[in-house]
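Try it yourself: sequence plus 6-O-phosphono-beta-D-fructofuranose, in.
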Amino acid sequence: MNNPKVKRLGILTGGGDCPGLNAVIRAVAKTAFFRYGIEVLGIMDGFGGLIENRCALLTDRDVSGILHRGGTILGTTNRDNPFRYPVGEKDGQIVWGDVSDRAITNLRDMGVDVLIVVGGDGSLHIAHELYKKGVPAIGIPKTIDNDLSATDFTFGFDTALNTATDAIDKLHTTAESHHRMMILEVMGRNAGWIALHSGLAGGADVILIPEIPFTYDAVCAKISARRQAGKKFSIMVVAEGAELPGGELVYQDKVAGNPLLDKLGGVAGVVAQIIQEKSGVETRVTVLGHLQRGGTPTPFDRILGTRFGVKAVELAMNGEFGKMACLHGDLVDSVPLKAAVSEQKRVNPHGELVRAAKSVGVSFGDE
Ligand code: F6P
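Structure, out:
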């Protein structure tokens, strides 16, 4: 159905980038241009561009040759939130204010009839708040963390998983040569999806995730059982959000007053030191970091991004605002934005994936 009231879509990418964003932008633009004959305005650098009025009409040329490119041609940021934006300074402190009305006026001035927000939970939450204030908004879920409950998969996850699995494969050979314990720290915030999937795919011996508390004794018991069986090396994957025994998280950096900007990182180093002391096995650490967010998207992420982009334009043209594209089984579907942002998807410690891993001998450090 072609809605004659919708003549121009606006699109922005918010939050941390991930491979597949350009596939979405391309799919939105091509579907808008060629299927519906309407325009697409690219809003730069996430909600920052909306607040500061930075945007440009996209052309077919702009979106050609970008399907295989990581990153986002629109730029992104995980800092700018129209509902909490720096509006000044007082006594050396930033003063925060709600500039959402300015963002909405800008949207109107830009001639945007429907706003498509490609983001993780933070950006989708903002999209939902704007929708509640009357903005015809549609969401597309992205994050390497795969932690949005309303969709089976987010694009970006598969590419991150490939990068992490490749790293485990490489660590395997050197671990074997030196009879060492190799620990790989992966991203995922406080969800263990990247660690669990890459650990399974890479044949890790120990996987530590935020959802399953571990003890050093259980991890050391696994390493010593392997040595007794003649296996002198071990591979561990640890999620950046895994809690140390006692419940503590390890941060690289804490940004005062904004938990969304706190940077997890460093848990592998802490765990390595204690495991080396307790087990006597020489241990080395690799922190994969932002390599997981970069590079060429896998075919799965390109296809999922394309399907989500097409779905978002269809929702816009059908007047189905306040919704998010999602994947359920094999089908691309939609859910209300409210449902999309209400619950984080975390690993079920008793679920089939964890059971499968335990069945093939993986230790989660819990038993
Ligand atoms: O949410 C994606 C993610 O890569 C997390 O896995 C990680 O904790 C965080 O973003 C890192 O954010 P930044 O790029 O701001 O350091």
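One thing you can check immediately is this: Residues 16, 78, 120, 143-145, 187-189, 240, 263-264, 293 surround 6-O-phosphono-beta-D-fructofuranose (CB under 6 Å).
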